[in-house]
């Protein structure tokens, strides 16, 4: 639940996607207000923090949520297994995964993890991937740096972060279209709406079920680490969209 007073500095362009084709993720508190058309880019004075944030840096941050790198997922998985030493035997099914991911840059590592875990009767898939999502964000934000600044500039609290995420993602997709850059075959999308005074609904569309499962843990970790907020998140799949 979110207990901080709201601050409003969101950045948004109208979504290009119809809300009727979304799956829902909800969590949070307080009512949503209209969005402004600017975003705060913060400057620090440490090492690579001296550089000004731009849309590319924001894109890198959002990709952590929508398409994290194989290396980042592998590190998160290793951290989780190390943390749960008592369950080492349970995770031996993952030993078949390749160790050197640099040899196969286009390998769908996360999807293989998802497939292997889905076959295990003693592992609850959604809970497992929520933990990986938590480890993913915890690892990436453990040293601060530009990624943390990029996430923080999306909002002063969790509600503002989620509503701004919608608009920034739209702008980045628009920029790709303008520059004629090819879109990813399994492109994700966000639409954030307000349900009532205590719930934010984040409709997230993706063709990758593993990413949808991962996002719950990632958002909870962002809420906890960046905003000192406990987020309660429930996930449902839209009957109007076969994607996750």
From TrEMBL:
<dbReference type="InterPro" id="IPR038158">
    <property type="entry name" value="H-NOX_domain_sf"/>
</dbReference>
<dbReference type="GO" id="GO:0008074">
    <property type="term" value="C:guanylate cyclase complex, soluble"/>
</dbReference>
<protein>
    <recommendedName>
        <fullName>Heme NO-binding domain-containing protein</fullName>
    </recommendedName>
</protein>
<dbReference type="InterPro" id="IPR011644">
    <property type="entry name" value="Heme_NO-bd"/>
</dbReference>
<dbReference type="GO" id="GO:0070482">
    <property type="term" value="P:response to oxygen levels"/>
</dbReference>
<dbReference type="InterPro" id="IPR024096">
    <property type="entry name" value="NO_sig/Golgi_transp_ligand-bd"/>
</dbReference>
<feature type="domain" description="Heme NO-binding">
    <location>
        <begin position="113"/>
        <end position="234"/>
    </location>
</feature>
<dbReference type="GO" id="GO:0004383">
    <property type="term" value="F:guanylate cyclase activity"/>
</dbReference>
<dbReference type="GO" id="GO:0020037">
    <property type="term" value="F:heme binding"/>
</dbReference>
<feature type="region of interest" description="Disordered">
    <location>
        <begin position="12"/>
        <end position="36"/>
    </location>
</feature>
<dbReference type="GO" id="GO:0019934">
    <property type="term" value="P:cGMP-mediated signaling"/>
</dbReference>
<dbReference type="Pfam" id="PF07700">
    <property type="entry name" value="HNOB"/>
</dbReference>
